[in-house]
C-alpha cells in the first residue's frame, strides 16, 4: 500500500497586527516595524494542508478530498476568513498572530477534524515572499 | 517613434472594511456581506501602473523605470502599505475603499507624480479571483 | 462618475476533443494533431469575465461581485465544470469546442444573466501558454 | 560532494473519470461526486520529478537536465499527454486514475528510465488547489 | 463571424546590458544604474504574441496554434533564446536592448511570419514586476 | 516550543554560461548544449531560504524576517544580482555556475550571516520548469 502526501489549498483574507503582550511598546515597534502599526494591515493568506497516508486499494485515495476541504472550511476558514485575527479569533487573544503562530493554531484546529494520525504539515503563505511550515514538531 | 505601454507592479498589504456612509447598516450588511464585518479584514493588493508613450530614440525607453517605481513608492506605497485603508488613508474618510475606488484614488495620487499625459492605466488585484482596471475615463 | 473594468475569475475542469463536422477525418487530424485524439483530453480552464461601468457613488461599486460570481456559476460553471464539452454541452453539439468558440459561447451564456450593456470581455485560459479574448465584436 | 535535489517540471493535458471497479455505482457516485460524471472531465496536470544525488565535481551537475527531461517525455508525456487516462493508459485499466495513483504510476514509469537510486519524489498538481507527493514509500 | 484575440506565450532566457551608443558612459551609468553593469545580467523573458481575427466557421479557429507557435520559434526563440542580446542579435548592434525595444524587434520579426493583418500585440515580461506591450502604433 | 520552518524568497537577475574547466570544449558543448553558448544567457533566479527553529514564546517568531531579508541582501543579492556569475562572482572563477552549485554557494554565503544552526534549506529556481534544493548534506 503506497504512502502518499495529499495537499489541499485554500485562501483567506484577514487583517492582523504584530504585537506581543510580553514586550514593551518600544520593543514591539523596534522588532515588528510597520507590521506593528496600531490599526493593522492585512493579507490574502494561502493555507496548504497536507495529510500523509496509504492509498486505500479499494478507492484509490488517501482520504476524500471533499472531507479534507470541509475540515478546512469548518475550522480555519470559518474562524479566520474576512476577520481581524487579533480581535476576532479567541486563540490570538494572548498570542501574537505571526505567520508562525497562525500555522500552529491552524494545525491545532485541524487535528481534531481529521482522522487520527493523518495530518502531516500546514503551510501558511503570507505574501509571495514569505511562508511558514509546521509539522507538529 | 514607436509607442509602447510600460507597466510596473508593486504589492502592498492593507486592511479595509467595505462600508458606505450613504447606506444604512442593514443595506451595508446585505450588499457587502462578510466584507462588511466590523473589525475588517485584509489583502495583499497588487497594483500595476501603466504609462503609454513613444520610445525615446536616444535612450530606448519610455520613461526611467526607477522613476516610475519611485512615483509608486512615494504615493501608493507610502500611504497604503501596512495600513488600514478606512482609518489611515484620508481619501477614504468618506469614500468606501472598494477595489474600484482604490484604483481611482491611486490614479489620482500618481497623476501628479508622473510626466503629463503618460499615465494610461491602473490595475488593482485584490485576490487571485478579482481585479479592477481604471483608465481615467 | 469614473468608469472602471471589474473582472471576476473562475476555474473549471473539462474535457474536450477538437473536431469539426465540416472537415474530413484527415483534415481534422492534420489541423488539430494530438488535440484531435479520439477519446479526448482535458484542461483546467480559467475564465475571466469583465464588466465595464460607472462606479455608483452611493455604494462605490460597479456591480455586486457576489452577483457577478453567481452569474458565472449559473451559466458557465453549471454547464461546463467537470463535463465533457463535446458530449455534455448542447452548444457544442455542432460546434468545435476550441478556446475561441468556448469564449463566444460563455459570452452568450453570460449576456442574459448580467445587467444590459455591462459585459465587456471574456477571457478563456486553456493552458499556461495559450488564451483567447472575446469582446462581442 | 554536496547532495542536492534537482527537479524538472512538465505539464500534460488529460481527461479522466474517477471510478473504482471495486465499488458499486452508488458508492462511486457518493464518494467521487461530480468527478464520477460518466463522460469524464479533464485537467492540465503538472508533474514535478525530483532526483537526489551528489554533485559531480567534474561537471557541476547531478544529472543532465536534458536526460531528465527526455525520461519524462518518453514515459509520462508519451503515454498521458492529450489522452483519456481511463481509456488510453493501460495502467489505469483496472486502477482508478486518482491523483494519488497517477503519482505512483508516473514513479513506476520513471524508475526504469533514470540511473538507479536517483529518483526521489514525484509531485502531481491536479488543480491550483490540490496536489499529491509520492516518495516511493 | 465573431472576432477574437488569440495569444500564445513562450519563454526565453537571455542576457543583456542596458547601454545606449548615443549617451556618454556617465549618462548610461546614471540612467540605467545596475542594469548598465559592464558584463551584463539576464532574465527569463516571457513573450505573449496576440493575433486578432474572425473565427473561421469551418474550423472554429482564428489560426492554427501550431503555426503561431512555429512563427515564434523560427523568429524570437531562434535568435534570442540562450543568447546575449547585445552581442548575438544583429538588431541590437546599434539599438539598446531595453524591454521596449525588444518588444518592437519581436513585432518586426513576427510580422513577416504571420498572415497579413493578424498580428495585434506583443507583450514582453522581463521580471515579475515589469513588462511592456507594443501594438504596432 | 513548536518548531517551524520559515522561508524568505528573493529574486535576482543574472547571466551565466555553463562551462566546466575540467571538460574539453567538445565535452562542454555536448553536455550543456545551448547553455554552453560562448557569450552567455541569463535568468531571473528566485532563491528561497528556509530557517528551522523553535518559536520564541515572548515574540512569536523564529527569527526576525527583516534580519533574514538583510542576510540575503548582504550576501546573495549583493554579489549576484545584475551580475555575470562566471565573470563577477569569485566563487565561480573555477566552479561551473550550475543551479546545483549556485545553491551550494548561496548556502555557504548565508551560513555565516545567520544564527548558528538555523539554516535548513536553500532553493534556487532557474526557470519555471527547473529548480534545485540544497540542505547542507
Describe the protein's architecture and organization.
Chain A is an alpha+beta fold and 137 residues long. A 5-stranded mixed β-sheet of chain A has the order 3-1-2-4-5. In chain A, a hairpin with a 2-residue loop joins strand 4 and strand 5. Helix content of chain A is 30%, strand content 32%. The model of chain A has no long low-confidence stretch (mean pLDDT 98). The two termini of chain A are 26 Å apart.
Strand ordering within the main sheet of chain A = 3-1-2-4-5
Cα distance, first to last residue of chain A?
26 Å
Order of H and E elements of chain A: EHEHEHHEE
Most extensive contact: A-B, 22 and 22 residues
Kindly state the number of beta strands of chain A: 5
DSSP helix fraction of chain A: 25-40%
Percent in strands of chain A: 25-35%
Question: If you compute it from the alpha carbons, what radius of gyration of chain A comes out, rounded to the nearest whole angstrom?
Answer: 17 Å
Q: Would you tell me the overall average pLDDT of chain A?
A: 98
Structural class of chain A: alpha+beta
Alpha plus pi helix count of chain A: 4
**Shape by Cα distribution of chain A:** elongated
Low-confidence spans of chain A: none
Oligomer: homohexamer
List the helices and strands and how they pair.
Six copies of one chain form a homohexamer.
Chain A: E1 3-16, H1 25-32, E2 41-54, H2 65-80, E3 83-84, H3 85-88, H4 99-111, E4 119-127, E5 130-134
Parallel strand pairs in A: 1-3
Antiparallel strand pairs in A: 1-2, 2-4, 4-5
